[in-house]
Amino acid sequence: MDYKGQKLAEQIFQGIILVSAVIGFIYGFITEQFGWTVYIFMAGVALSCLLTLPPWPMYRRNPLKWLPVQESGTDDKKPADRKPKRR
């Protein structure tokens, strides 16, 4: 998941949570059943998790460009050739 995909996933997650909380509150208020508020909110949480947690292709449209691998010269040095660490 790239940075833009993370932002999109966060916006979708928060939007679904907010909408389900408002709908759940209104429905629970009208029916005077707090249980329905919780059920609707939990359904929204489950839906948002299903839509945002897996790495769907819509979250990977802008891949990061990594730097090429560079060979380092530290592998050839012996421990005695290295400078001691300062403390």
Description:
The protein has 87 residues and is an all-alpha fold. 55% of the residues lie in helices and 0% in strands. The longest helix has 29 residues, at 3-31. It is elongated. It starts with a helix and ends in a 35-residue tail after the last helix.
Order of helices and strands: HH
- Judging from the principal axes of the Cα atoms, what is the shape? elongated
Strand residue percentage:
under 5%
> What multimeric state do the chains show?
single chain
The chain-level structural class is mainly alpha
Number of strands: 0
- What is the terminal separation in angstroms? 40 Å
How would you characterize the largest beta sheet?
Answer: none
Based on CA atoms alone, the radius of gyration comes out at 25 Å
Our count of helices gives 2
User: Mean pLDDT score, rounded?
Assistant: 87
**Low-pLDDT runs:** none
Q: What's the helical proportion of residues?
A: 55-70%
